[in-house]
Amino acid sequence: MDPMNIAELKKHSxxxxxxxxxxxxxxxxxxxxxxxxxxxxAYASLSVSxxxxxxxxxxxxxxxxxxxxxxxxxxxxxFFKSRRANDWLGNITGVLTHFPYEQWKxxxxxxxxxxxNLDKRGVxxxxxxxxxxxxxxxxxxxxxYRLYRNPLIMLVLGPLLVFLVTYRKNRPGAKRREKLxxxxxxxxxxxxxxxxxxxxxxxxxxxxxxxxLWVAGMMGIWLFYVQHQFEDSYFENDDKWSYVQAAVEGSSxxxxxxxxxxxxxxxxxxxxxxxxxxxxxxxxxKTHLAIPPLQKAMTINLRxxxxxxxxxxxxxxxxxxxGFRELKSAxxxxxxxxxxxxxxxxxxxx
Length: 350
Hints:
The chain is mainly α. The protein has 16 helices and 5 strands. The strands form 2 sheets. Strands 1-4-5 form a 3-stranded mixed β-sheet. Strands 2-3 form a two-stranded parallel sheet.
């Protein structure tokens, strides 16, 4: 893509970075109301068969993902014009999705400001090691990285760690406002569960809520993973890094079937979102279609996205992701180079 065009892309996206109150309220209605209705239906179905409850819970989890997209837009101040309205709704949806608003907002904004920057990894990102870093790492660090990047651990245990551990505590260096918000979110979540437990019974609550959270967590982690983990992604050191280039070349266009595109709040247009986070989710597709250069972004679909599961390490020389199986040939290239200092930049899901 021509550098001049890259520089102009964000400017061309500006007209779409405007909230529409009607669209926002309509999205609230077609997201939260179905989620509540499905939760009640899942609970009611317990008296019939748990095999009926589970598929209802899966559909409810999809609407929880859509709720998270609203939360996500609030973090970018792009769902409503009013900052106060975004903050209030962000905190409410943060309780429903189990993410502390201030903590996630701050970490995610850092992710946007540093995505694809090899020298500024570590906040709001998936943990990515370069080939040099991995070869120079200790056996213990290599094992930790292999476990982290293992699909089963990432998608099966990942949701449990995210909901029960990662976002239940404050991140290092958090300021007072962020810390208090995390504590308040935790208290609100406990209060919500106490109320629900008293209303429907603790066993019923667990049988309904556990699969909803687990499926939603798995879907969320997968979406975040696949949007930046593709073969010819973009990573550069700070002196060569470009925000716009990282957005367009380092974020994918995840082309999903219409129902899945709707339920995921158009977040598959991730290259547009990274280019201009102020574009509301309901304007992402419009932006993509209106700006031809954006249509040249890396496009993946349900089938091709599965290839990303084998991508483990970033090869700085080849500018591509490789799997652990390709390490043998990569080691030969590194053998003649000065050993890199291993960097432990493990990060949580942003």
